[in-house]
Structures are given as C-alpha cells and as structure tokens.
Amino acid sequence: MKTLSKRLRVAAAAIEPRPYAPLEAVALVKTNATAKFDETLEAHVRLGIDPKYTDQQLRTTVALPKGTGRNIRIAVITRGEKVAEAKAAGAHLVGDEELVDTIAGGAMDFDLLIATPDMMPKVAKLGRVLGPRGLMPNPKTGTVTTDLAGAIAEFKAGKLEFRADRSGIVHVQFGKASFTPEDLLENLKAVQETVDRNKPSGAKGRYWKSLYITSTMGPSVEVDVSALQDLKFGE
Question: Cross-referenced PANTHER family, in alphabetical order (predicted)?
Fold first, then answer.
C-alpha cells in the first residue's frame, strides 16, 4: 500500500469526517491544493443507479458558467467544406477517413472528439477504442453535429461531457485551484443541477448517495448535497 506524503497527511488530518457546507468545502479543497502547478478540482458523485440497465444510465453535458480553466484539445472527424469550418473554429485535429485510421492505430492526442453525422458510419468502428475512454461521439451530448463552429465554441468555453461509470459514480472536473471559491462553487452548482435534471427514469430510492470534491494532489472533502441543492445563484 502506497504511503501518503507528509504534505498529504497534514492536509488530510485537518479534514473532519463529515459533510461540509458547499462554500466551506470548496475553500478547504482550494487551500489544500498546494502542488507546484495549478491543480484541477474534481467532483465525485456516488448515485443510487445501476448503469448495467439502460434506464439507469447517465451520460450528458454540463456548461460550467466560469469555464474549465483548461485549454481543451478538440479533434473533429468530417469531410469537405466542414474541414475548413472546424479548423477556423480552433479544432486541434481535423480529418476524414485518414484521422479515423490514425485513431484506430492508438494515436489519441485530444481531449474531445466531435464528428459530423455523415462520418459516423466510419467512426463506429472506433467504438472499442473510444468507448472505454468516454470519447465516442454522441448526438445527445452535442458531439455529433453539423454545427461544428458552435459545438467547438461551447466546449472551449466550458462545456464538459460526463457519464456515470459502471459503479454508478460520476467523475467530473469543475475548475482550477486558481479560481476563486465563489467561481468554483458556481461551477459545482451547475454540475449538481445537471445531475438532478438528468436523473435516469429507472433510478429508484435515494438518488444522491454522496458527493466528494478533491484536487489533483489533495485529499477529498465531503459536501452537504442538500445544502448545495438549496443554493440559488443569480437571484
């Protein structure tokens, strides 16, 4: 078993084993993000769902109002005049069948993949490569579209795709340690509202089981979900 570093032991010792008020939790995680780089903050949501059933799966997108703080690398699979549109919109990689073959060979130098509908029959063969990484384009998440410029702009501005894993846990980034606690909280609130709004039809019983937030190199802190749900922004 890996031994915790002295820095992490000290940080973890200051955290009480209880749910914290949302702003207090965010501020605590931010304080403990003491690495020499700008750490990413993540939310880990345990839900009362069993994703092996189709009516208990969760896959959607969230638009973080304060952005992600990341320079996201977007790849686009398209053809014809759409290639120029994708490049002009700032896509990191753009191509047609040749890019499909490159990805099939294991080269995935991107964080998000968008495809136009006419290319999906070609993209379909990448399911085994992209599926486990959560990178398969999907119309429901806005990653299969003819509006490439709009989609690229949205994802670069702070739109993120997320899904529940096999254990019913959602892992989603919601900002950087350099953000203010208030901005991080507003992003976290957007994640909570999105999870609630997209509750699977087959979910039964207690939907939210727990919510923990953490930074890349820091200890996790439990958040009071009810208090987060009660928060109101923009009023």
Answer: 54S RIBOSOMAL PROTEIN L1, MITOCHONDRIAL, LARGE RIBOSOMAL SUBUNIT PROTEIN UL1M
Q: How confident is the prediction for the chain on average, in pLDDT?
A: 91
Q: Given 154, 172, 195, which residue is the final one in a domain?
A: 154
d(CA 122, CA 115): 10
pTM for this predicted structure: 0.79
pLDDT digits (tens, 9 = 90+) for 66-100: 998 888 899 999 999 999 999 999 999 999 999 99
Strand, helix or coil at 28?
Answer: helix
DSSP state of 167: T
Q: Give DSSP secondary structure letters for 69-126.
A: SS---EEEE--TTHHHHHHHTT-SEEESHHHHHHHHTT----SEEEE-GGGHHHHGGG
Instruction: Give the H or E element holding residue 186.
Output: helix 181-197
Which domain does 54 fall in, by range? 11-66+157-228
